[in-house]
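Protein modeling request. Please complete all fields; requests missing the sequence field cannot be processed.
Requester role: graduate student
Desired output: 3D structure, token encoding
Chains: 1
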Amino acid sequence: MLTNIRKEIANRFKYEINRRNLSPAKVSSLVDIPDSVIKSLLTGTREISFAEVTTICRGLGINPVRLVYSKSYPKSRLAFRNAAFEAQKLAAAVEDVFLLIKEFLPKTDLPVMKRTYNTAYERDHIIIEAAGVTEKLRQEFGTPEDFLTRYSIPVFPIRSDVDFDAFVINDGERFAICVNTGKPPQRIRFSLAHEIAHILYDRDTDVPIDTLLTNLYWKRTVSEAEVPEFFGYKFAQFYLIPHEAVFHVARSWPNLDFGACQRLIDEGKTSKDVLANAIFDMLTCHREIMPPTSRMEYDDDDYQPIGDQFRRMGYEEERDIESRYDDMDVSRPKSLTFKNIQTVMSKLQNSHEAKNVHYFLNQHRNSIAHLIEKEKDEFSDDIMQYILEVLTIELR
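Delivered output (396 residues):
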């Protein structure tokens, strides 16, 4: 029996360490416990010391009581890979609160959706598929806020200096999105749409709160492991700005109709960078809309990583890559770089109406506060204080 307990604790620790993409040596340095102790706990050969377990858990942002005493562990799908350590700890605390209050959250009747790929996927095909599925979604749910309201998916709005945008937590029946309200409103709306993609397509996988994408956006073929994040960005992009409308404005490149472009930004309550990315994608995917001398042909050797991280809303600092004409072995015109698309659109403005997302988030904050107050007798004073601190809410 004792051996089984050790193995169970070892398995739980391995799960937590793996989803944080940590090594035993890294854990040892973070919690100041010898590497040999960490390794023996992970193999189940060391006698369990609650003091050691507590020290490790606190150092990694894990609830030690849940790790040791919970009968079923874990009950959510969330990965912390590639996120900064402080973001991992914050996400772990939010996940802990979600598991504490999930029985009081509404169940959802969400449809199950599948992407049409096997082990690898063409970049252009992902963009085209994301454009198609969001067109259907927009017909029923005009905005991400409409979708979340229809399916009663709670949003935990947390203002934090920790570097994260948003992440989704689910236990198979219930979902919640945690979003950082310290980001610009246009970025918040993009993040909500991005997490909807994960809710619809990735509920059975461990969805990371952030992913380093390096040169992903310049590869002709996107691997199966890379698809969820790439698809999520394109899904959000075309949820906010319809691909058909982007197609029409992109046809006039480089002589864009700025009035039409500004209307798309304002109607989508988004940023000009989102539209710039959408135009870039239209120009690279739909070669028939480009003049013959401007068409691009992809070559994996031409793709270069730009920036350390593909960040939401801003995307990358530059998407200035070298490619070739279809029929001539010469560099393509500089006017087709993403940087130059941004330059042409520099006089446009981000949508001011995006700030209305804060009204939507305040509604969710009030709903969560009301729910917790209604069920407060279910929790000890310490647990209640913990919940309120993590969610940064106050009861009346």
